[in-house]
Amino acid sequence: MQNDWKHCYRLRASLRNLGMVGTAFMVGMTFLSVAAWLRQPANDPIKMPLVISGFLLFACLYVYFLLLYHKYRLFVGDSWIRQTGILHDKHVDLSMIHELKWRCIPQSGSVRLIGNYGELTIELGHLETQDRLQLIDFLRLTIAESKQVGWHKFNDQFANTPDRQNKSIRAEWLFALIFGAHAVAFGTIWGIGGGIQFLVYCVINVGIAVYLLRLSRQKTVGLGRETGEQSHARECGSDVF
Questions:
Q1: N or C: which terminus of the chain carries fewer CB neighbours within 10 A?
Q2: Residue 9's beta-bridge partner residues?
């Protein structure tokens, strides 16, 4: 089974990036907090240790994201699917599937495969967009229609239509402007004598704004490419699904 897989899916790269940035930020804040506490330990005998513990807890969470990114694999073959993670290794035989549930939770939906020897859940939002669409098409074609549950509701909610993509792009631009405004405000406060924490807040908001702008640009380019391909197909008299 290990050698006849056709596709190997990994988690989306943004999860890795979140883990790297989050870990670096939390570790940095931990060191700054410890240094500040060591200078004047008597001023915050309880509050500062709690703050430091909070930073360490979130640092562990981001480290977990990094480990999950490096360990997770979704192997797909003609008749089976295998999912590996940090603490689990599951597989299902597609020829023995009793039910495939299309679910609208979490944010980008998920699919649960129930077979003879257990079940396997795939959170589709953790995959790159093209990998997610490819996997959905594969499952729709491979599993008998009579065994699929909840497809119409799932499709209505997550169909990748141009209108829905345009709304997503506009929302990302709006949030980018909001975080950009926050960055300007924090940078101004730092510039007129605010503490170093305002510079840190400024840098964080700049990073988020740039990420959102880059994401919206990628979607805009992809949407334009899809629109161009559909227009070309119509000119050639082809049917586009």
A1: C
A2: 74
- Classify residue 124 as exposed, middle or buried by CB count within 10 Å of its CB (0-12, 13-18, 19+): buried
User: In the structure encoding, which two tokens stand for residue 141, read together?
Assistant: 């074609």
CA atoms within 13 A on the CB side of 202: 14
Instruction: State whether residue 191 is helix, strand or coil.
Output: helix
Query: Residue 48: phi, psi to the nearest 5?
Result: -65, -45
Residue with the two structure tokens 């926050």: 182
Structure tokens at 183: 């960055």
45 prior amide bond cis, ω within 30:
no
Tens digit of pLDDT for each residue in 216-240? 787 776 655 554 444 444 444 444 3
Helix axes 47-71, 13-39, angle to 10 degrees: 160
Check: pTM over 0.70? Answer yes or no. Answer: no
Long-range contacts of residues 185-189, Cβ cutoff 8 Å, at least 24 apart: none
Report the C-alpha gap between 170 and 155 in whole angstroms: 22
Q: How far apart are the C-alpha atoms of 179 and 97, rounded to whole Å?
A: 46
Crossing angle (nearest 10°) for helices 196-235 and 13-39:
170
Contact yes or no for 26/62 (Cβ under 8 A):
yes
Q: Pairing mode, if any, of strands 97-103 and 110-115?
A: antiparallel
